[in-house]
Amino acid sequence: MGDICVGCEELLESSSHLFMHCKVAHLVWYEIFKWLGVVLVMPPNLFYLFDYFSAAAFSKKSSKGFRMVWHAVLWSIWKARNNKIFNGIAVDPLEIAEEAKVVSWK
């Protein structure tokens, strides 16, 4: 597979692409935003996404929860990537989003 993203299998993998700009990542974030009731345009990098994501919360307590979700999404995308590379398991954005939801609220 080399340096090609295992999610979209089209473009070179970078952290920005893998976690934000890949078709798979876009679908994962769309599902997460919908679940949280957040409308957000995808920013250019992960730092802005973290800031926007934290600011989208309506209270200090929910801001902490939103940050937990953000971390769970990144971890779930990374785990799916590794499952594809090392175990040949197909990448499914809806499954990734569901896993992130479960992990973030354990």
From TrEMBL:
Residue ranges crossing the lipid bilayer per the database entry: 35-58
UniProt keywords, alphabetically: Membrane, Transmembrane, Transmembrane helix
Protein name: Reverse transcriptase zinc-binding domain-containing protein
